[in-house]
Write a structure and sequence with these properties.
With 217 residues, this protein is an alpha/beta fold. It has 7 helices and 7 strands. Strands 5-2-1-6-7 form a 5-stranded mixed sheet, covered by helices on one side. A two-stranded antiparallel ribbon has the order 3-4. Strand 1, helix 1 and strand 2 form a beta-alpha-beta unit.
């Protein structure tokens, strides 16, 4: 990709605190479109993320209404707020990263999203993504589905693109226990690397040959 990226929209599924690889890909594009029209797929990053705690990788799952049988479009997926999952997730994040070098600087931007009650999963995920963009000092437009603009091309990740990203080692709080664990949630990189996170993402060089270009809006 080159300077023509300013005419390109990156189209992605909604993701809960996306993995580092997703941010490697999004870094190159000024407009991020969240696909709300796709069929929701359970047991994916749409409502799951992985953080690294004292006992190793820990999966956090946002409960959704309809459970395992949900068949709706992603934009219609509602969060099940009957249980106090927000409190549990934040406590897990605090336990995993409370002693990291940069937690004190960034935690408020993320914590306040867990103090709100969201009805739709896509709204919660998008707010968290925006908070991560702020921490990275990225000026990007985030919207639901492609923005209608004849000058914009829409790019969708093709099969194999994540496998073609080389994620370099960075310091992790519990690396002495588990070794380096690649492609955890972006919060792992942010809390551990701080203002060096953007430079890290820039060096990971995604392989954009595995992208499908669509000019349909």
């Amino acid at each position: 990709m080159n300077s023509e990226n300013n005419k390109v929209t990156w189209m992605t599924e909604t993701q809960y605190l996306p993995p580092v690889s997703a941010f490697v890909m999004m870094r190159s594009f000024p407009v991020i479109a969240i696909d709300g029209e796709e069929d929701f797929r359970k047991s994916t990053t749409r409502n799951r993320c992985i953080i690294i705690g004292v006992n190793g990788p820990l999966t956090l799952t946002v409960p959704v209404k309809g459970g395992r049988g949900v068949r709706d479009k992603t934009r219609d997926i509602r969060i099940s707020n009957e249980e106090k999952w927000q409190h549990r997730h934040w406590r897990s994040i605090l336990s995993a990263y409370g002693k990291s070098s940069y937690f004190i600087f960034y935690e408020e931007k993320l914590r306040r999203q867990y103090e709100k009650r969201y009805e739709f999963l896509i709204d919660f995920n998008t707010k968290l993504m925006g908070a991560c963009f702020e921490i990275l000092q990225w000026r990007k437009e985030i919207g639901l589905n492609p923005m209608r603009n004849d000058q914009q091309k829409i790019l969708r990740p093709g099969k194999g693109i994540v496998q073609n990203i080389t994620l370099r080692r960075y310091y992790q709080v519990f690396e002495s226990r588990h070794g380096f664990i690649a492609n955890a949630s972006i919060v792992d990189l942010l809390f551990n690397s701080g203002n060096e996170a953007d430079a890290y993402l820039e060096k990971c060089h995604p392989d954009f040959d595995h992208i499908t270009i669509s000019e349909k809006h």
